[in-house]
Protein backbone atom coordinates (compact mmCIF):
# COMPACT_ATOMS: atom_id res chain seq x y z
CA UNK A 1 0.00 0.00 0.00
CA UNK A 2 1.32 3.41 -0.88
CA UNK A 3 -0.71 5.44 1.60
CA UNK A 4 -0.54 4.62 5.29
CA UNK A 5 -2.29 6.07 8.24
CA UNK A 6 -1.55 5.31 11.86
CA UNK A 7 -5.20 4.44 12.68
CA UNK A 8 -5.89 0.99 14.16
CA UNK A 9 -8.41 0.37 11.36
CA UNK A 10 -5.72 0.86 8.68
CA UNK A 11 -3.50 -1.68 10.45
CA UNK A 12 -6.42 -4.08 10.81
CA UNK A 13 -7.16 -3.74 7.11
CA UNK A 14 -3.56 -4.47 6.13
CA UNK A 15 -3.71 -7.54 8.35
CA UNK A 16 -6.95 -8.66 6.64
CA UNK A 17 -5.61 -8.55 3.07
CA UNK A 18 -4.24 -12.12 3.26
CA UNK A 19 -7.83 -13.26 3.95
CA UNK A 20 -8.90 -11.58 0.69
CA UNK A 21 -5.99 -13.10 -1.23
CA UNK A 22 -6.93 -16.52 0.16
CA UNK A 23 -10.56 -16.11 -0.91
CA UNK A 24 -9.57 -15.09 -4.46
CA UNK A 25 -7.19 -18.02 -4.67
CA UNK A 26 -9.54 -20.69 -3.32
CA UNK A 27 -12.68 -19.55 -5.20
CA UNK A 28 -10.68 -19.01 -8.41
CA UNK A 29 -9.09 -22.47 -8.22
CA UNK A 30 -12.30 -24.29 -7.40
CA UNK A 31 -14.40 -22.62 -10.11
CA UNK A 32 -11.85 -22.77 -12.94
CA UNK A 33 -12.27 -24.82 -16.10
CA UNK A 34 -10.17 -25.12 -19.25
CA UNK A 35 -11.52 -21.78 -20.61
CA UNK A 36 -10.93 -19.69 -17.47
CA UNK A 37 -13.25 -19.14 -14.52
CA UNK A 38 -16.85 -20.26 -15.09
CA UNK A 39 -19.37 -19.64 -12.32
CA UNK A 40 -22.65 -20.22 -14.11
CA UNK A 41 -25.75 -18.70 -12.48
CA UNK A 42 -27.52 -21.22 -10.20
CA UNK A 43 -24.86 -23.86 -10.90
CA UNK A 44 -22.69 -25.90 -8.51
CA UNK A 45 -19.74 -23.57 -9.33
CA UNK A 46 -21.65 -20.47 -8.24
CA UNK A 47 -22.67 -22.37 -5.11
CA UNK A 48 -19.00 -23.21 -4.39
CA UNK A 49 -18.26 -19.47 -4.26
CA UNK A 50 -21.22 -18.85 -1.94
CA UNK A 51 -20.20 -21.79 0.30
CA UNK A 52 -16.64 -20.52 0.69
CA UNK A 53 -17.87 -17.01 1.49
CA UNK A 54 -20.38 -18.44 4.01
CA UNK A 55 -17.63 -20.45 5.72
CA UNK A 56 -15.58 -17.23 5.99
CA UNK A 57 -18.57 -15.33 7.37
CA UNK A 58 -18.99 -18.03 10.01
CA UNK A 59 -15.34 -17.74 11.02
CA UNK A 60 -15.79 -13.95 11.36
CA UNK A 61 -18.92 -14.58 13.46
CA UNK A 62 -21.11 -12.57 11.12
CA UNK A 63 -24.87 -13.02 10.92
CA UNK A 64 -25.69 -15.18 7.91
CA UNK A 65 -28.93 -14.96 5.94
CA UNK A 66 -30.34 -15.69 2.50
CA UNK A 67 -33.35 -14.85 0.36
CA UNK A 68 -35.63 -16.95 -1.88
CA UNK A 69 -33.49 -16.06 -4.93
CA UNK A 70 -30.21 -17.47 -3.60
CA UNK A 71 -28.51 -14.20 -2.67
CA UNK A 72 -26.48 -14.40 0.54
CA UNK A 73 -26.14 -11.75 3.25
CA UNK A 74 -23.40 -11.49 5.88
CA UNK A 75 -23.96 -8.85 8.54
CA UNK A 76 -21.68 -7.24 11.10
CA UNK A 77 -24.09 -5.85 13.72
CA UNK A 78 -23.82 -2.16 14.46
CA UNK A 79 -24.13 -0.39 17.80
CA UNK A 80 -27.62 0.84 16.89
CA UNK A 81 -29.43 -2.00 15.20
CA UNK A 82 -32.49 0.08 14.43
CA UNK A 83 -30.59 2.50 12.20
CA UNK A 84 -30.54 2.03 8.43
CA UNK A 85 -27.43 -0.01 7.61
CA UNK A 86 -24.94 -0.19 4.77
CA UNK A 87 -25.29 -2.74 2.00
CA UNK A 88 -22.04 -3.67 0.26
CA UNK A 89 -22.16 -6.07 -2.63
CA UNK A 90 -21.46 -7.39 -6.05
CA UNK A 91 -22.04 -10.62 -7.94
CA UNK A 92 -20.54 -14.05 -7.34
CA UNK A 93 -21.21 -15.50 -10.81
CA UNK A 94 -19.07 -14.97 -13.92
CA UNK A 95 -19.26 -15.18 -17.70
CA UNK A 96 -18.20 -18.51 -19.27
CA UNK A 97 -14.40 -18.64 -19.43
CA UNK A 98 -14.16 -15.33 -17.57
CA UNK A 99 -11.78 -13.90 -15.01
CA UNK A 100 -11.79 -14.33 -11.24
CA UNK A 101 -12.24 -10.70 -10.20
CA UNK A 102 -15.29 -9.42 -12.12
CA UNK A 103 -17.94 -9.38 -9.39
CA UNK A 104 -16.07 -11.42 -6.81
CA UNK A 105 -13.76 -8.47 -5.99
CA UNK A 106 -16.72 -6.49 -4.62
CA UNK A 107 -17.95 -9.29 -2.37
CA UNK A 108 -14.43 -10.06 -1.11
CA UNK A 109 -13.84 -6.32 -0.51
CA UNK A 110 -16.94 -6.25 1.69
CA UNK A 111 -15.82 -9.34 3.62
CA UNK A 112 -12.35 -7.83 4.04
CA UNK A 113 -13.84 -4.59 5.38
CA UNK A 114 -15.90 -6.54 7.92
CA UNK A 115 -12.86 -8.64 8.88
CA UNK A 116 -10.87 -5.42 9.45
CA UNK A 117 -13.63 -3.86 11.55
CA UNK A 118 -13.85 -7.05 13.62
CA UNK A 119 -10.06 -7.12 14.03
CA UNK A 120 -9.98 -3.42 15.04
CA UNK A 121 -12.50 -4.34 17.73
CA UNK A 122 -14.92 -1.49 17.10
CA UNK A 123 -18.55 -2.16 16.31
CA UNK A 124 -19.73 0.14 13.50
CA UNK A 125 -22.44 2.71 14.20
CA UNK A 126 -25.00 0.82 12.10
CA UNK A 127 -25.26 -2.70 10.63
CA UNK A 128 -23.05 -3.43 7.64
CA UNK A 129 -24.26 -6.22 5.36
CA UNK A 130 -22.26 -7.80 2.56
CA UNK A 131 -24.47 -9.19 -0.21
CA UNK A 132 -23.24 -11.91 -2.56
CA UNK A 133 -25.50 -11.52 -5.59
CA UNK A 134 -26.53 -14.34 -7.93
CA UNK A 135 -26.83 -14.39 -11.70
CA UNK A 136 -25.71 -10.90 -12.72
CA UNK A 137 -24.11 -12.35 -15.83
CA UNK A 138 -27.19 -14.29 -16.98
CA UNK A 139 -27.00 -12.78 -20.49
CA UNK A 140 -23.81 -14.72 -21.18
CA UNK A 141 -25.46 -18.03 -20.35
CA UNK A 142 -29.15 -17.63 -21.20
CA UNK A 143 -30.85 -16.64 -24.44
CA UNK A 144 -34.45 -15.53 -24.86
CA UNK A 145 -35.99 -12.39 -23.46
CA UNK A 146 -34.61 -11.25 -20.11
CA UNK A 147 -32.80 -8.28 -18.60
CA UNK A 148 -29.98 -10.08 -16.72
CA UNK A 149 -28.99 -9.00 -13.19
CA UNK A 150 -31.38 -11.61 -11.80
CA UNK A 151 -30.32 -11.74 -8.13
CA UNK A 152 -30.39 -7.99 -7.53
CA UNK A 153 -33.56 -7.36 -9.53
CA UNK A 154 -35.37 -10.23 -7.79
CA UNK A 155 -34.37 -9.00 -4.33
CA UNK A 156 -35.39 -5.43 -5.20
CA UNK A 157 -38.76 -6.46 -6.64
CA UNK A 158 -37.77 -5.33 -10.14
CA UNK A 159 -37.78 -8.73 -11.86
CA UNK A 160 -40.98 -9.57 -13.76
CA UNK A 161 -41.86 -13.25 -13.16
CA UNK A 162 -42.32 -13.72 -16.92
CA UNK A 163 -38.55 -13.45 -17.42
CA UNK A 164 -38.12 -16.71 -15.48
CA UNK A 165 -39.94 -18.51 -18.30
CA UNK A 166 -38.63 -16.54 -21.27
CA UNK A 167 -34.95 -16.93 -20.31
CA UNK A 168 -33.59 -20.29 -21.50
CA UNK A 169 -30.15 -21.77 -20.83
CA UNK A 170 -28.24 -21.73 -24.13
CA UNK A 171 -26.67 -25.14 -23.45
CA UNK A 172 -29.38 -27.14 -21.69
CA UNK A 173 -32.55 -25.35 -22.85
CA UNK A 174 -33.77 -25.24 -19.24
CA UNK A 175 -35.74 -22.14 -18.30
CA UNK A 176 -34.42 -19.90 -15.54
CA UNK A 177 -37.42 -20.92 -13.42
CA UNK A 178 -36.47 -24.60 -13.70
CA UNK A 179 -32.80 -23.89 -13.00
CA UNK A 180 -33.54 -21.67 -10.00
CA UNK A 181 -35.77 -24.37 -8.54
CA UNK A 182 -33.21 -27.12 -9.26
CA UNK A 183 -30.61 -25.05 -7.37
CA UNK A 184 -32.90 -25.12 -4.31
CA UNK A 185 -34.46 -21.65 -4.48
CA UNK A 186 -38.00 -20.37 -4.85
CA UNK A 187 -38.91 -18.84 -8.22
CA UNK A 188 -42.53 -18.41 -7.08
CA UNK A 189 -41.29 -15.65 -4.75
CA UNK A 190 -40.25 -13.51 -7.74
CA UNK A 191 -42.48 -10.47 -8.07
CA UNK A 192 -44.63 -11.53 -5.08
CA UNK A 193 -45.37 -9.24 -2.15
CA UNK A 194 -42.96 -6.71 -0.70
CA UNK A 195 -39.43 -6.62 -2.11
CA UNK A 196 -36.82 -8.36 0.04
CA UNK A 197 -34.69 -5.19 0.05
CA UNK A 198 -36.34 -1.83 0.68
CA UNK A 199 -34.41 1.43 0.27
CA UNK A 200 -35.68 2.94 3.54
CA UNK A 201 -33.91 0.21 5.52
CA UNK A 202 -30.46 1.06 4.17
CA UNK A 203 -28.13 4.08 4.16
CA UNK A 204 -26.98 3.07 0.71
CA UNK A 205 -25.53 0.40 -1.55
CA UNK A 206 -21.79 0.43 -2.25
CA UNK A 207 -20.14 -1.77 -4.88
CA UNK A 208 -16.43 -2.17 -5.50
CA UNK A 209 -15.71 -3.60 -8.96
CA UNK A 210 -12.73 -3.98 -11.25
CA UNK A 211 -12.63 -1.48 -14.08
CA UNK A 212 -13.45 -3.37 -17.27
CA UNK A 213 -11.86 -0.85 -19.62
CA UNK A 214 -8.26 0.40 -19.96
CA UNK A 215 -8.53 3.91 -18.45
CA UNK A 216 -7.13 3.45 -14.91
CA UNK A 217 -4.24 1.27 -16.11
CA UNK A 218 -3.45 3.73 -18.90
CA UNK A 219 -3.47 6.69 -16.52
CA UNK A 220 -1.54 4.75 -13.85
CA UNK A 221 -4.23 5.40 -11.23
CA UNK A 222 -5.28 2.58 -8.87
CA UNK A 223 -8.81 3.71 -7.97
CA UNK A 224 -11.76 5.29 -9.80
CA UNK A 225 -14.80 6.86 -8.18
CA UNK A 226 -17.74 6.17 -10.47
CA UNK A 227 -19.86 9.11 -11.59
CA UNK A 228 -22.65 7.15 -13.31
CA UNK A 229 -23.34 3.89 -15.09
CA UNK A 230 -23.97 4.76 -18.69
CA UNK A 231 -27.44 4.18 -20.04
CA UNK A 232 -27.93 2.68 -23.48
CA UNK A 233 -30.03 3.18 -26.59
CA UNK A 234 -29.85 -0.03 -28.60
CA UNK A 235 -31.22 -1.07 -31.97
CA UNK A 236 -30.68 -4.81 -32.14
CA UNK A 237 -31.75 -5.70 -35.67
CA UNK A 238 -31.13 -2.90 -38.15
CA UNK A 239 -31.35 -3.55 -41.88
CA UNK A 240 -30.42 -1.72 -45.02
CA UNK A 241 -32.48 -2.84 -48.03
CA UNK A 242 -31.16 -2.17 -51.52
CA UNK A 243 -31.22 -4.32 -54.65
CA UNK A 244 -29.10 -7.24 -55.76
CA UNK A 245 -27.82 -6.41 -59.26
CA UNK A 246 -24.87 -7.31 -61.49
CA UNK A 247 -21.60 -5.98 -60.09
CA UNK A 248 -20.13 -5.32 -63.53
CA UNK A 249 -23.09 -4.30 -65.65
CA UNK A 250 -24.84 -1.71 -63.45
CA UNK A 251 -23.42 1.88 -63.38
CA UNK A 252 -23.23 3.83 -60.13
CA UNK A 253 -26.38 5.90 -60.66
CA UNK A 254 -28.55 2.78 -61.11
CA UNK A 255 -27.35 0.95 -58.02
CA UNK A 256 -29.03 0.47 -54.68
CA UNK A 257 -25.91 -0.73 -52.90
CA UNK A 258 -26.69 -1.67 -49.31
CA UNK A 259 -23.05 -2.00 -48.24
CA UNK A 260 -21.95 1.43 -49.52
CA UNK A 261 -24.99 3.07 -47.90
CA UNK A 262 -24.35 1.28 -44.59
CA UNK A 263 -20.68 2.25 -44.65
CA UNK A 264 -21.67 5.89 -45.15
CA UNK A 265 -24.10 5.69 -42.22
CA UNK A 266 -21.44 4.14 -40.00
CA UNK A 267 -18.87 6.78 -41.03
CA UNK A 268 -21.35 9.61 -40.36
CA UNK A 269 -22.13 8.18 -36.91
CA UNK A 270 -18.41 8.01 -36.18
CA UNK A 271 -17.97 11.67 -37.22
CA UNK A 272 -20.90 12.66 -35.00
CA UNK A 273 -19.26 10.79 -32.14
CA UNK A 274 -16.05 12.79 -32.67
CA UNK A 275 -18.05 16.06 -32.70
CA UNK A 276 -19.95 15.10 -29.55
CA UNK A 277 -16.71 14.23 -27.76
CA UNK A 278 -15.13 17.52 -28.88
CA UNK A 279 -18.15 19.31 -27.38
CA UNK A 280 -17.58 17.51 -24.05
CA UNK A 281 -20.45 15.02 -24.24
CA UNK A 282 -20.12 11.55 -22.71
CA UNK A 283 -20.71 9.05 -25.48
CA UNK A 284 -19.60 5.66 -26.78
CA UNK A 285 -21.05 4.17 -29.92
CA UNK A 286 -20.66 0.74 -31.48
CA UNK A 287 -21.91 -0.76 -34.73
CA UNK A 288 -21.68 -4.52 -34.69
CA UNK A 289 -22.96 -7.82 -36.12
CA UNK A 290 -22.54 -6.13 -39.52
CA UNK A 291 -23.01 -8.59 -42.36
CA UNK A 292 -24.46 -9.40 -45.75
CA UNK A 293 -26.29 -12.69 -46.16
CA UNK A 294 -23.65 -15.09 -47.49
CA UNK A 295 -26.34 -17.42 -48.89
CA UNK A 296 -27.62 -14.71 -51.25
CA UNK A 297 -24.68 -12.41 -51.71
CA UNK A 298 -21.79 -13.24 -54.10
CA UNK A 299 -18.64 -11.71 -55.54
CA UNK A 300 -20.41 -10.62 -58.73
CA UNK A 301 -23.47 -9.11 -57.06
CA UNK A 302 -24.09 -5.58 -55.86
CA UNK A 303 -25.15 -6.28 -52.24
CA UNK A 304 -28.90 -5.92 -51.76
CA UNK A 305 -29.10 -6.13 -47.97
CA UNK A 306 -27.04 -5.61 -44.82
CA UNK A 307 -27.85 -6.37 -41.22
CA UNK A 308 -26.27 -4.69 -38.22
CA UNK A 309 -26.87 -3.56 -34.66
CA UNK A 310 -26.27 -0.23 -32.98
CA UNK A 311 -25.27 0.25 -29.33
CA UNK A 312 -25.17 3.87 -28.09
CA UNK A 313 -24.20 4.58 -24.46
CA UNK A 314 -23.97 7.75 -22.42
CA UNK A 315 -24.26 9.10 -18.89
CA UNK A 316 -26.78 11.58 -20.33
CA UNK A 317 -30.30 10.50 -21.24
CA UNK A 318 -30.54 13.54 -23.55
CA UNK A 319 -27.42 12.45 -25.47
CA UNK A 320 -28.89 8.96 -25.91
CA UNK A 321 -32.11 10.40 -27.30
CA UNK A 322 -30.28 12.87 -29.56
CA UNK A 323 -28.03 10.18 -31.03
CA UNK A 324 -30.90 7.76 -31.65
CA UNK A 325 -32.86 10.52 -33.42
CA UNK A 326 -29.80 11.53 -35.41
CA UNK A 327 -29.19 7.93 -36.51
CA UNK A 328 -32.75 7.87 -37.86
CA UNK A 329 -32.31 11.18 -39.75
CA UNK A 330 -28.97 10.11 -41.22
CA UNK A 331 -30.49 6.80 -42.32
CA UNK A 332 -33.30 8.63 -44.07
CA UNK A 333 -31.00 11.11 -45.90
CA UNK A 334 -28.47 8.49 -46.95
CA UNK A 335 -31.24 6.10 -47.94
CA UNK A 336 -32.89 8.71 -50.20
CA UNK A 337 -29.61 9.68 -51.85
CA UNK A 338 -28.41 6.12 -52.36
CA UNK A 339 -31.77 4.57 -53.35
CA UNK A 340 -31.90 2.18 -50.40
CA UNK A 341 -34.18 1.92 -47.37
CA UNK A 342 -32.88 1.66 -43.83
CA UNK A 343 -35.02 -0.07 -41.21
CA UNK A 344 -33.38 0.59 -37.83
CA UNK A 345 -36.30 -0.95 -35.94
CA UNK A 346 -37.02 0.48 -32.51
CA UNK A 347 -34.42 1.57 -29.98
CA UNK A 348 -34.65 0.01 -26.53
CA UNK A 349 -33.73 2.59 -23.92
CA UNK A 350 -32.01 1.91 -20.63
CA UNK A 351 -31.66 5.02 -18.47
CA UNK A 352 -28.27 6.04 -17.05
CA UNK A 353 -27.83 5.35 -13.32
CA UNK A 354 -26.27 8.34 -11.59
CA UNK A 355 -24.33 7.60 -8.43
CA UNK A 356 -25.46 9.42 -5.28
CA UNK A 357 -23.82 12.86 -5.08
CA UNK A 358 -23.43 12.73 -1.28
CA UNK A 359 -21.79 9.30 -1.25
CA UNK A 360 -19.55 10.27 -4.14
CA UNK A 361 -18.31 13.37 -2.38
CA UNK A 362 -17.70 11.31 0.79
CA UNK A 363 -15.61 8.87 -1.26
CA UNK A 364 -13.66 11.77 -2.79
CA UNK A 365 -13.00 13.12 0.73
CA UNK A 366 -11.92 9.67 1.86
CA UNK A 367 -9.52 9.22 -1.04
CA UNK A 368 -7.95 12.60 -0.23
CA UNK A 369 -7.69 11.86 3.50
CA UNK A 370 -6.13 8.45 2.84
CA UNK A 371 -3.83 9.75 0.08
CA UNK A 372 -5.19 7.31 -2.51
CA UNK A 373 -4.60 8.45 -6.11
CA UNK A 374 -8.01 8.48 -7.83
CA UNK A 375 -10.02 9.90 -10.71
CA UNK A 376 -13.70 10.31 -11.51
CA UNK A 377 -14.76 7.70 -14.03
CA UNK A 378 -18.01 6.69 -15.74
CA UNK A 379 -18.93 3.02 -15.90
CA UNK A 380 -19.47 1.85 -19.44
CA UNK A 381 -20.56 -1.61 -18.34
CA UNK A 382 -23.76 -2.42 -16.47
CA UNK A 383 -23.63 -3.41 -12.78
CA UNK A 384 -25.99 -4.49 -10.01
CA UNK A 385 -25.60 -0.93 -8.64
CA UNK A 386 -27.85 0.38 -11.44
CA UNK A 387 -30.73 -1.77 -10.17
CA UNK A 388 -30.28 -0.36 -6.67
CA UNK A 389 -30.43 3.17 -8.15
CA UNK A 390 -33.61 2.23 -9.99
CA UNK A 391 -35.09 0.92 -6.74
CA UNK A 392 -34.38 4.24 -5.00
CA UNK A 393 -31.19 3.39 -3.08
CA UNK A 394 -28.39 5.95 -2.82
CA UNK A 395 -25.58 4.03 -4.55
CA UNK A 396 -21.84 4.42 -5.03
CA UNK A 397 -19.18 2.46 -6.88
CA UNK A 398 -15.42 2.20 -6.48
CA UNK A 399 -13.42 0.94 -9.46
CA UNK A 400 -10.09 -0.81 -9.06
CA UNK A 401 -7.44 -0.83 -11.80
CA UNK A 402 -7.41 -4.01 -13.86
CA UNK A 403 -5.33 -4.90 -16.90
CA UNK A 404 -6.18 -7.06 -19.94
CA UNK A 405 -9.86 -6.06 -19.95
CA UNK A 406 -12.59 -8.23 -18.51
CA UNK A 407 -14.87 -11.14 -19.41
CA UNK A 408 -11.73 -13.11 -20.23
CA UNK A 409 -9.42 -15.30 -18.11
CA UNK A 410 -6.53 -12.80 -18.34
CA UNK A 411 -8.14 -9.99 -16.33
CA UNK A 412 -5.58 -9.01 -13.71
CA UNK A 413 -6.07 -6.96 -10.56
CA UNK A 414 -3.08 -6.29 -8.34
CA UNK A 415 -3.84 -7.12 -4.72
CA UNK A 416 -2.21 -3.82 -3.65
CA UNK A 417 -4.71 -1.91 -5.81
CA UNK A 418 -7.51 -4.03 -4.34
CA UNK A 419 -6.23 -3.10 -0.86
CA UNK A 420 -6.41 0.64 -1.70
CA UNK A 421 -9.98 0.35 -3.05
CA UNK A 422 -11.00 -1.72 -0.02
CA UNK A 423 -9.36 0.79 2.30
CA UNK A 424 -11.50 3.53 0.81
CA UNK A 425 -14.62 1.35 1.12
CA UNK A 426 -13.81 0.54 4.77
CA UNK A 427 -13.19 4.22 5.51
CA UNK A 428 -16.65 5.08 4.18
CA UNK A 429 -18.34 2.33 6.21
CA UNK A 430 -16.48 3.37 9.36
CA UNK A 431 -17.77 6.95 9.04
CA UNK A 432 -21.07 5.65 10.41
ZN1 LIG B 1 -19.37 -7.53 -12.97
Characterization of the model:
By secondary structure, this protein is an alpha+beta fold. It folds into two domains: 302 residues, Zn peptidases (Aminopeptidase, 3-Layer(aba) Sandwich), CATH 3.40.630; 120 residues, 2-Layer Sandwich (Alpha-Beta Plaits), CATH 3.30.70. The protein is 37% helix and 23% strand. It has twelve helices and 20 strands. The strands form five sheets. Strands 3, 4, 5, 6, 9, 10, 18, 19 and 20 form a nine-stranded mixed β-sheet that branches. Helix 1 packs antiparallel against helix 2 and helix 10 crosses helix 12. The longest helix has 23 residues. It starts with 7 loop residues before the first helix and ends with a helix. 46% of the residues are buried. The model has no long low-confidence stretch (mean pLDDT 96). Bound molecules: zinc ion.
Number of distinct helices: 12
What share of residues is helical?
A: 25-40%
Q: Give Rg in angstroms.
A: 24 Å
CATH topology of the largest domain: Aminopeptidase
**Molecular shape:** elongated
Summed up, the domain count is 2
Amino acid sequence: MTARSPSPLAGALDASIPLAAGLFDEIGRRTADTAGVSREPYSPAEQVAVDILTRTARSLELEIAGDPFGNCYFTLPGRERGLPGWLVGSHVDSVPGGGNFDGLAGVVAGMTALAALRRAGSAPACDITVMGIRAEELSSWYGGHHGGHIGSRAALGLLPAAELDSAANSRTGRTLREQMRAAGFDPTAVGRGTPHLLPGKFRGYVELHIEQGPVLADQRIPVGIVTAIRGAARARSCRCLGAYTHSGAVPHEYRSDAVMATVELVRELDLQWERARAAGADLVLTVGMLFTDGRVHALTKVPGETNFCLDIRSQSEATLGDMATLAGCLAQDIGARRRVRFDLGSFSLQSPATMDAGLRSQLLDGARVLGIPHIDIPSGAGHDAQDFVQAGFPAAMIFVRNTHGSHNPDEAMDITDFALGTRLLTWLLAQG
